[in-house]
Design goal:
heterodimer, A: about 300 residues, mainly alpha, ABC transporter involved in vitamin B12 uptake, BtuC, globular, B: about 350 residues, two-stranded antiparallel ribbon, Branched-chain amino acid ABC transporter permease (chain B)
Chain lengths: ~300, ~350
């Protein structure tokens, strides 16, 4: 049997990495800090709850539902709100406000759905986890093995997609220089729509696995969002690979970091866990605003070696 | 009687939101800083009220015991002392407000400094994360504001006796009117033009010799000071500070909705927005009770959706709000010639 704190760290960090990939994808392609992103993950968590308790199905069979539903919500946000507004010449800050407001709409719907599940199906829908619905692989909960596998396969598939397929190349070109990509015949709007859909889907996927180990409530995505910001900034906001590294470091720092600190300062430290993203954000912005992938490590090392 | 209470409650609510929204208008509307952490400075002001005046009085009166655990009995003694001392109450009130202004400025500087040079997105996120962070500290660190249970604040208006509610509401409203004139004066001066120049085109503003980082930091300091005053007054008004009540939805998002409804970068518009919004909200609260039996969920969430949809609709169909921003006209040629002669 693995220690619960180890499982905590692995599950949280890998799911955070999945979410950070999606968030960074949106940030890279459309330059929008999507404040509504966290609630898409919560939507995934509620699909898992519905699958397990209402439809009486395995959660893993409904991962695709979570992916598609969150992806569609994200796509709708882009296609029917963000794109028309940016065509009308609203500033980027205005789009942040738009996603900020959309987040509250989503939160309202999630809370209503939670109330509906509580009142109609008599479920614990405001504070729940579904550890009991998980499968066991070699005596450990399945999510411990499946969530790292998922993170690895997402990054491999995305890597292959971006480097080996024609559409992926078009996507990278659009990220690099949208007008130029448009002038050589890339459908820029399609690329943006696909990246929003993919990003939303990844949030839904991560969210669907969340209740298998972590206590969920209607605000969970919104709370994890703070860590996603920190992870994305830590990884450098211009790289998907950085997002994975940032997500894993930030997630482990949050779970294992606080538990290590609580060994030194006493158990009171654990309550201050939400401050870790804050510290990461402040330290990164003050020291290396480009994040881990933005630092030119090679130059730094050779400079130091020259000094020696 | 009930009508008067309703009016006074509305007056105080309008006052608090007016201060917050005016300060939001100063940094987000005029200076273009997407401040998603308005709640941060508000919490700072409320924590000042929770932390300082009660402890000062407790030491002055020579009380023994822990201010947090024995809060109820100590506040009772303090309030009975304050009820007969108008001068000390008022001095304490003013001193607390001044301390809140100081802390608001510090919080404004600290929260803006890390990301001010990087861009508006990172700045927005830093402010948001900071706001959540201060609330987490307040909820878990009991000596600051009583932890998750909250803490009672000394009642500096206890001298008014039965008219306390009236006095507090009027004081809050008077403060908000004063702040309206202050912000209006600031933004209608050349300073306001400078802020708008920074908002509209940073590069152009920089080329004219404006120190953009400095301007943003100073604007955030002033606006956070105003928000901290709002927080302090709200804490005095409600008589207690409960950190969990300072949510992003009610103290960051609703001011944003009010500002967008009324008109960005227009103080009169902001006033209109706040009054309209508070009035609408009271209407919703009144009809809430009638809707509740028919719905299998809390009407509160419907309210949240309504505000979100409202903001989105405003952004889509009327981004300038109810009262659009006024253009600053250039001086007439004849006036310029007159100025040249003298």
């Amino acid at each position: 049997m693995v220690e619960p704190i180890v499982i905590d760290g692995i599950v949280y960090a890998t799911l955070l990495a999945c979410m950070t990939i999606g968030f960074t994808l949106i940030l890279m392609s459309t330059k929008i800090w999507n404040f509504a992103y966290g609630s898409l993950a919560t939507a995934g968590a509620y699909i898992s709850l519905t699958a397990a308790e209402v439809w009486k199905l395995s959660i893993y069979s409904q991962l695709l539902t979570a992916f598609v539903l969150s992806g569609i919500v994200s796509f709708v946000l882009y296609r029917f709100l963000v794109r028309p507004l940016s065509q009308r010449g609203i500033s980027l800050d205005g789009l942040f406000v738009l996603t900020f407001a959309f987040n509250f709409v989503l939160l309202g719907f999630l809370n209503i759905y939670a109330d509906y599940l509580t009142n109609v199906f008599k479920l614990r829908a405001r504070l729940f986890f579904l550890r009991g619905a998980d499968i066991q692989i070699f005596g450990t909960p399945g999510v411990v093995i499946i969530s790292p596998l998922l993170a690895v396969s997402i990054i491999v598939v995305l890597h292959l997609f971006l480097t080996r397929t024609k559409f992926g190349t078009a996507m990278r070109a659009t990220i690099e220089n949208p007008p130029l990509a448009g002038s050589v015949g890339v459908n820029v709007n399609l690329v943006y729509s696909v990246s929003w859909f993919l990003a939303g889907g990844l949030a839904g996927l991560a969210g669907a696995l969340l209740p298998l180990w972590i206590l969920c409530y209607p605000n969970i995505g919104d709370v994890i969002m703070l860590s996603v910001f920190a992870a994305s900034i830590l990884g450098g906001i211009h790289s998907i690979y950085g997002a994975v590294i940032g997500g894993i470091i930030a997630g482990l720092a949050e779970v294992w970091g606080t538990s290590a600190l609580s060994g030194v300062f006493g158990s009171g430290v654990i309550q201050y866990r939400p401050l870790i993203p804050l510290i990461i954000v402040v330290v990164i912005f003050l020291t290396a605003p480009e994040g881990i992938t933005g630092i030119e490590w090679r130059g730094k090392l050779t400079k130091r070696m020259r000094k020696v | 009687m009930a009508a008067i209470d309703f009016l006074l409650d509305m007056l105080a609510t309008v006052g608090v939101y007016l201060m917050l929204t005016l300060s939001l208008n100063l940094d987000s509307g005029y200076c273009g800083i997407p401040n998603f952490g308005k709640v941060l400075a508000m919490i700072a002001g409320a924590f000042v009220v929770a932390f300082f005046p009660g402890r000062i009085l407790a030491t002055m009166l020579g009380m023994s015991g822990d201010f947090v655990t024995d809060n109820a009995s100590m506040i009772f003694q303090i309030n009975s002392f304050l009820a007969s001392n108008f001068l000390i109450s008022t001095a304490l009130f003013i001193a607390t407000i001044i301390v809140a202004i100081g802390f608001g400025m510090i919080v404004g500087y600290v929260s803006t400094r890390p990301a001010v040079k990087i861009g508006s997105g990172p700045l927005a996120i830093t402010l948001l994360v900071m706001g959540e962070g201060l609330r987490v500290i307040g909820t878990n660190y009991a000596p600051l504001a009583g932890g998750s249970i909250g803490i009672s604040a000394p009642d500096v208006f206890a001298w008014a006796g039965g008219d306390r509610f009236l006095v507090v509401s009027v004081v809050v409203f008077v403060f908000s009117v004063a702040i309206f004139f202050f912000v209006n004066r600031l933004t209608n001066a050349p300073l306001g033009r400078m802020l708008r120049a920074v908002r509209d085109n940073e590069i152009a503003a920089e080329s004219l010799g404006i120190d953009i980082v400095g301007v943003k930091l100073k604007t955030m300091m002033v606006s956070s000071a105003i928000a901290a005053v709002a927080g302090a007054l709200y804490a005095f008004y409600s008589g207690a500070v409960i950190s969990t009540a300072y949510t992003r939805a009610s103290w960051t998002f609703i001011p944003w909705a009010m500002m967008l409804l009324g008109g960005v970068a227009n103080n009169v518009g902001v006033v209109t927005g706040v009054f309209t919004f508070v009035f609408l909200r009271k209407l919703i609260v009144m009809y809430k009770a009638e809707l509740t039996p028919y719905l299998p969920f809390d009407v509160l969430w419907l309210e949240l959706i309504l505000y979100g949809v409202m903001v989105i609709l405003i952004l889509m169909y009327r981004p300038e709000g109810l009262i659009p921003e006024k253009r600053t006209p250039t001086l007439k040629m004849s006036t310029l010639k007159k100025m040249q002669k003298t």
